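Honest question from a wet-lab person: if I give you the sequences of every part of a complex, can you actually get the arrangement of the whole thing, not just the pieces? Trying it with mine:
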Amino acid sequence: MRIKSARRTAMNYLIGGLSILATVIVILPLIAILFYLIYKGASSLNLAFFTHIPAPVGEEGGGMANSIVGSGIVLLLASLMGIPIGIAAGVYLAEFGRGKPLGTAVRFTADVLNGVPSIVMGISIYSLIVIRQKHFSALAGGVALAIMMVPTITRTTEEMLALVPHAIREAALGLGVPKWRTAVSVSLRTASPGIITGCMLAFARVAGETAPLLFTAFGNSFWSFKLSEPIAALPLQIYVYAISPYDEWHRLAWAGALVLIVMIMVSVTLVRIFANRGALKGGS
Amino acid sequence: MPPILPNPPAATASGPLLSEDLAPSPIRDFLSKRGSGRIADNSFAAVMLLCALSIFAIVLFILSILIVRSHLSLAQFGWSFFTRSAWDPVSGDFGALPFIYGTLATSFLALLMAVPLALGVAIFLTELCPRVLRAPISFLTELLAAIPSVVYGLWAVFVLVPLMRDTIGPFLVKFFGWTTLFDGANFGVGLLTASMILAIMILPIISSLTRDIMNAVPNSQREAVLALGATRWEMIRIGVLRNSRIGIVGAVMLGLGRALGETMAVTMVIGNHPNISKSLFAPANTLASVIAGEFSEATSDMYLSALIEIGLALFLVTIVVNAIARLMVWAVTRNAPARVH
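Yes, you can. This is the full assembly:
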C-alpha cells in the first residue's frame, strides 16, 4: 500500500509545474519590454538626443534634452519639498509616536495615501495652484510630485529607524544626550543608509510618474528654466510622442523610454546593493 | 588614580541624596549648568509632529479641494451622476456610469489574469525555488514594479495592440466566439488589451505582498503538516495558504486598488470611448483615463467640475479599498518583520 497515492503525487507535480510556468510567464513580459526598448530605442540614442530640443513636426532629428533637464528640475523641487517633510514625519513615527494612537493613525494614513492614484494628486494641485496662478508651472509639478513622495519616505524612514536597536538610544540617553539629539545624531545616523535608499526608491518612483505632471507642469517644447513657466518632463514627453501620429516622434519616444528605464533601473539596483551595506541590514 | 566622582555622601536622617549634601564635581556642574533641555526637546518633537500631521493635511486638502471644485456638477446631478450613462460635453449632460463600468471591467479582468499568476510566482519563490535563484528572480519581479506606467503604455501601444489585433483577437474569436464576449470589430485597442497591460502592472504588487505573507507563516505549521505525511503541494495548501488566506485577500485588494487608479497605460490602449458594451474588444474608458484624456479639453466649468467629481469618486474608492486591504494585510503580518510596499 502506497502512503501517497498516485493522484496526490501527480497533483503535487502539477502544481509545481504550474508555478514554474507562472514564474516564466511573469518574467517574459519584463524581458520582452526591456529587449524591445533596447532594440527600438538604442539606435536613436545619439549626442543630438541629449543636447537638442525637439525639432518642429515633420523635420528629422531633434532630441529630448529639455525634457531630461526639465525632469531634473521638477524632481529636484519635489525632493527639496518632500524629503525633509517625509523624514521628519518618519522620525516622529519612530521616535515619538511609538504605541500612541496618533502614531498608528499617521502610519495607516500614509500607507493608504501611497495607494491614491497619482492623477488625483495632479488634479488637486491643478485646482490649488494652476487655477489660482492662471498658468501651468514647474512649481506646481514639483508640489504634485512632492506630495507623492511624502508618504513613501515617511514609511521607509520609520521602518529603518525602527531597526535601530533600542540599546543604542538608551545608551545615548543614559549619557545625558537630550532626546532630540539622540534622534538626530544617534538614530538617524545609524539608520541613514536605509533612509537614503528609501529616498532613492521614492525618487525613482516619482521620476517615472506622468499623470501628476499632465496638468501641472504641462510640458514645453523649448528650454525652460523658470519655475513659473510650464516645463517639459521626460515621462510627459514620452506620453505625448507615443500617442502622436508621427513616426519621428515615436522614435524619440522609444529612446526617451530607454533613458528613463535605465535611470530607474540603475537607482533600483543601487538601492539593492547599498541596502545591505549599512550598519543595519535592511531595505526592501 | 584619583576617583573621578567624590565619595558618596553619608546617609542623613532626611534622605541620602539631598542636593545640598552632595560635594561639587566637574561633571555634576557641567550637567546642571546645561539645563534640562526641555525646550529643545519639546520644540523638536513639535516640529516632527507637525510634519507627521502633514500626512493628514494632505488627505484633507485633496478631499476638500476636490469637493469644492466639483460643486457645480454635484449640485446639478447629485447621485444620479453615477447612475446615468450620458457623456455629452456639448450640451452639458454628464453621467459617469460608462466609466464605472470600464473601471470595474478592466480591474476585474486584470485581477482574473493576475491573481493566479501572482500566486504561482509567490508559491514558486517561497517554497519551490532553489535558494540560489531566489534573489535574482525576486529582483526581476520587483523590477517589473519599477517600470513606469508610461513605458508600459508605450510598449502596449506598439507591441500589444498589433498582437491583439492580428494574433490573439482572431484566436479568441475562433475558439471562444460562442461566448459572445468577442463580438464586434477588433481594432486592437479596447477593454481586453487594457486589462492585459493592467494585469502585468499589478502582478508585482500582489506577488511580493503574498510572498511576505507566506513567509510570515511560522515554519512549525509547515513541519506539522509534513509530519502528517502531506505532499509538498498539500503542505503549501494546508499549512501556508490556509493560514494566510486573509492576508492574500488583502494583497489582492491592494492590487485591485492599484488597478482602479492606474492611468497612463490604460489611457493609451483603452480606446477612449464612453461606452458600455458586452464585447471585450470594444473601446471603453475608465474613471482615471477619462480624466487624463479629457481634462485639458474641458472648456466649460461644468465639464471641468464633472471631471473633478470623477476624480473625487476615484479618490474615495481607492482610499476605501486600500484601507480595507491594509487592515487585512496588517492583521496577518503583525508579528513579522516589516517591509514597505
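Two things worth pointing out. Chain B has two domains: 24-69, 81-333. Residues 24-69 of chain B form one domain.
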